[in-house]
Amino acid sequence: MDVPKASDVLARELRERILSGELAVGVALPAERELVKQTQMSRATVREALRILEVQNLIRVRAGRAGGAFVQRPTTKSMANSVSMLIRGQRIKLADLLQTREALEPFCAELAARNRTDDDLAVLDAANDAIADPDADLPAFLQANLDWHVGVAAAGHNELLIGFMTALSHAIYAGTENPTFVDENVRAITQRAHRSITTAIRNRDAEAAGRRMGRHVHSYAKAALAMDKRGAIRVED
């Protein structure tokens, strides 16, 4: 029988109190010595429990006289970081990343067409302008491409999809950073496809946005995989 460590038990108890809302965002947890007194656990156990919560982005620790451990909630960014670690740790194949994008991104485009704001359109337009820049080098083009794809997810205003697509887009960026693949033809096709999809999103035409996005990510995946002969990719920070 596996007996949980005392630090895991304490971390689980505090985690449930945070996620349930009993401990509100911004509230300071009791000081270390007070937690030791309340729980009858050692200081080392309490410190380890707090480290677990910090890694899980459920508290932030500030030093100094006004410091301590303060409650926070998981964010879209923390979710994206977790997915990124999974992709890197499991060495997920580029083919699997592209396949996942084909499954998700057409729906992201549909949501964007339904929920987008003028600010969302401004982000997509700026990314499209950067993609069309004839003087952009490969990193600049790929960054603009990433900004557009993440921008489509953000325009849908679904936090789960935003976090997942952010991590996925960064991984695909790393997997396709290949000047042989991203030639002038690929850039031109990408530019036209993105503007066409953006137009559908602007017009709130969810059906067209989803259909055009599906066609775009499928053709991009097919071309990328034809160039990629590796079994897996390594995503760097």
Automatic annotation (TrEMBL):
SUPFAM superfamilies: GntR ligand-binding domain-like, Winged helix' DNA-binding domain. Pfam families: FCD (PF07729), GntR (PF00392). Gene3D superfamilies: GntR ligand-binding domain-like, Winged helix-like DNA-binding domain superfamily/Winged helix DNA-binding domain. Keywords: DNA-binding, Transcription, Transcription regulation. The keyword Transcription regulation applies. PROSITE patterns: HTH_GNTR. It comes from the Bacteria. Residues 4-74 form the HTH gntR-type domain. This is FCD domain-containing protein. It comes from [Mycobacterium] nativiensis.
